[in-house]
Amino acid sequence: MTQIHLNSTSLNAAAYAGQTGVLKLEFRSGAVYHYFAVPVPTWQEFLGAESSGTYFNRYIRNRFAYVKIDPGAAAQPAIPGPISVTE
């Protein structure tokens, strides 16, 4: 994912993995979130929005599953792989 710096009062940077639909947002507070199953058109509209913070609040927040990333924790996969169960 290539990170893009944003000119926003609430968002610092964004990155998107089109093959998985994971949107990474870094807020000015330093908090980092991954949003899942974000469609490519939503990412494109986000990039073209006059205000990325307003677009986020209207079209992303509370519409997609997400997880807050703890930068101090050991690296964890954003999307867990298959779980194998043995009998």
Walkthrough of the structure:
The chain is an alpha+beta fold and 87 residues long. The chain has one domain (4-69). Helices cover 21% and strands 26% of the residues. It has two helices and five strands; from the N terminus they run E-E-E-E-H-H-E. The chain has helices at residues 40-48, 52-60, and strands at residues 4-5, 11-17, 22-27, 32-35, 66-69. It has a five-stranded antiparallel sheet with strand order 1-2-3-4-5, covered by helices on one side. Strand 3 and strand 4 (32-35) form a beta hairpin. It is globular. It starts with a strand and ends in an 18-residue tail after the last strand.
Characteristic key phrases:
87 residues, alpha+beta, 5-stranded antiparallel beta sheet, 26% strand, globular
What is the secondary structure topology, with strand pairs?
Elements: E1 4-5, E2 11-17, E3 22-27, E4 32-35, H1 40-48, H2 52-60, E5 66-69
Antiparallel strand pairs: 1-2, 2-3, 3-4, 4-5
Output the structural class. Answer: alpha+beta
Question: Biggest sheet, open or closed, and with what strands and sense?
Answer: 5 strands, antiparallel
Order of strands across the widest beta sheet?
A: 1-2-3-4-5
List the secondary-structure elements in sequence, H or E. Answer: EEEEHHE
Beta-strand content bin: 25-35%
Distance N to C terminus:
38 Å
> Could you give the count of β-strands?
5
The structural domain count equals 1
Mean pLDDT: 87
- CA-based shape: globular
Compute the gyration radius: what is it?
14 Å
Give the low-pLDDT segments. 80-84
- Please tally the helical runs, counting DSSP H or I stretches of 4 or more residues: 2
Helix content: 10-25%
